[in-house]
Amino acid sequence: MDGTETGWGRPAEPAPRWRALLDRARHGGRGEEPEETPQQPETPPQQQWNQQQQPNRGSAAVDRRPFNPLDPRQAAFDGRQQGQQPQPGGFERRAPEPPAERAVPQRPINPLDPRWQRGREPEQQHSFFEPAPRTPQQQPAQPPAREYGAPTGYPQQNNGYPPPGNGYQPPPANGYAPPAGAYGAQAAAYPQAPVAPPPVPPQAAPPQVAPVRQPAAQPAPVSPAPAAARIEWRQSRTEDGMDRAVSIMRRKLGKPRVLAFANPKGGVHKTTATVLAAATIGSVRGRGVLAWDDNELRGTLGLRAGSARHARTIKHLLADLMRIESLHGDALLQELDAYLRHASDGSYDVLAGEENPRFAQRLDQGTVRRVMDLLRRTHDVICVDTGNNVESVNWQTVMRSADQLVITTVPREDAAFTADWMLDVLEESGMGDMVSNAVTLISCPSAGHLPLLEDFKKHFATRTRAVAVVPYDPALEVGSSIEYGDLQQETRQAWLRAASTMLEPFAE
């Protein structure tokens, strides 16, 4: 007979559940029942820095499985609580599963809250959540870096519940920890309130020190990039001096100027100096320059200067002087030109002197002045060869009418002595200003070294405004007609400097 029927041929009533469980326990039904996989406790969420993990108040409900007094697992669980080993085939109570936790927002900690101050013990050591007071200079300790999931080394909070299977009583059904001993048992779990560091007394501000200005760093010199090669023409010092001399002679002179070349000694290059000065100034200015031979004893200026296109001299001019003085403008120029001689290049004019020595008696002071005034009406620069007689009327009249005195000499003692004596005579005659403004012109009669040249330069520099030296030139040695173009380059440059020195006080 199976268990579904009774002996009376009618179906039996179903066996109660406790019998099925008893049969299963008797025949080893525990091994046939599929084992339940234990659930791993959920790992509590990672704590944030310097915050406390609060117990989860929203725990799930405790497992309410029915209690079976015949279950061997229940007997085994009761035996462990009484310190006995579980019997084979007995029931064992399953440990309650940890409730699921719910994230609760963390409350900020107020270090000045008196509730935290009361729970703190003076002798308690500083923990991780309560660092030791530090000086203002000490840097706060940084937490060690660790990987996610690694152990932190600090006591883990389990919300007040023991881990499953450790033999402790399960928590109450409401999910809250018992109030007794909460502050004592969980003192280590709650962080102590940090103590504010003692106030630092204010320090006196250091005295203000004016910043020292450092000298500006000089930039390092940068070497210029090499420029492309080019040809550049530059004037030499000599040419620069020549340009200045030419510019002076080309300037306006304010009024016609008379240059008197004087020295009572014969053979000191008075005539040569008069001709070359007129030729030099005329070559620069182009026109308006005249050389006059005022020598009362047969002068030779007319023979050495200009072209002899006629034989007229100052004697013929004096004969028609009254008629010529009444003319003006171009008529005057055309009428006077018939009594003058001209240089071969046309740079200057020449008024020749009379070769008859008896004619000098007619050159009185009034006549010389009338001739001088006539020449000033037609020319800008008049160079006068004064002759050798300082006592003659014409010599003295020219000296008083001159604007510039030029003393001609050569580096010889007799010539220098005569020139020095003449300066004394002029100073005694009341012409000291003319002497101090005079120019000494030293002509070299020969080539080579002249021993007295430097001594003469030093001596006349103390008595006159300037000293000019002109070199020897072979074109002047023969004593014939003087051609300015035949002179050497060095001689022309020396005469340019000398002539500019003569006209420099009058150049505007």
From TrEMBL:
UniProt-listed PANTHER family: ESX-1 SECRETION-ASSOCIATED PROTEIN ESPI, SEPTUM SITE-DETERMINING PROTEIN MIND HOMOLOG, CHLOROPLASTIC-RELATED
Protein name as catalogued: AAA domain-containing protein
Domain AAA: 257-411
Top-rank taxon, per record: Bacteria
Sequence ranges of Basic and acidic residues compositional bias: 20-32, 91-100, 115-124
Amino acid composition bias (Pro residues), ranges on this chain: 161-173
Entries under Gene3D superfamilies matching the protein: P-loop containing nucleotide triphosphate hydrolases
Regions of compositional bias (Low complexity) in chain numbering: 37-56, 81-90, 131-146
Pfam family, one: AAA_31
Chain spans, region Disordered: 1-174
